[in-house]
Amino acid sequence: MATTTVHLLRHGEVHNPDGVLYGRIPGYRLSDRGQQMARRVAQHLSGAGRDVAAVVASPLQRAQETAQPIADAFALDLATDDRLIEAGNRFEGTTIGKNPSQLAHPRYWKLLWNPLRPSWGEAYADQAVRMRAAVDDARRAFAGHEVVLVSHQLPVWLTRRSYEGRRLAHDPRRRQCSLASLTSLTFTDDRFAALHYAEPAADLLLGADPTPGA
Fold first, then answer.
1. Long-range contacts, 201-204 (Cβ 8 Å, 24+)
2. pTM of the prediction?
3. GO molecular function of the protein, one example (predicted)?
């Protein structure tokens, strides 16, 4: 039997002084602290003697920059998978995450009719399907080894809930998916066997940008 681990890594802190919900907007890079977080995760994985055979990232800059130190630590070429991208969100480009009171404006009401889907963006179920497809492909391609997939908070959290058999609709305030955190899925052959969560950069989270939707 082959034991395979797929690590879902959320990217590090982003340089975002205006508190914009940047979503899929290009050009949002890691902050200095975010770069330090990325290096910390690379050290955490390589220092533990992990058998990482591939590093794959969302196409967005913040994910690519988080993934590169890990690829370098294991002398691997960084790959990109569009299925790991951030969730689509019609609030993208606003500062609602920083100032939620803006949701009281009537122009936003048409987006709020179904928070369980959610009605303002890419459906939770669609995110889980694309993420699980990326996980399955990585698991099959590197059976018996470990793979790091660098993605974003909501897609990672929904993937976790999917594997745990929980409802995808949830309270965003209760997500366990901090910046630069690892949600590790272990498989025995093609069977999901265990989940482990870790925060290698926990000491760097104090004072980090709290803007959600990253």
1. 201/12, 201/36, 201/37, 201/40, 201/41, 202/178, 204/13, 204/33, 204/36, 204/37, 204/40, 204/179, 204/180
2. 0.95
3. hydrolase activity
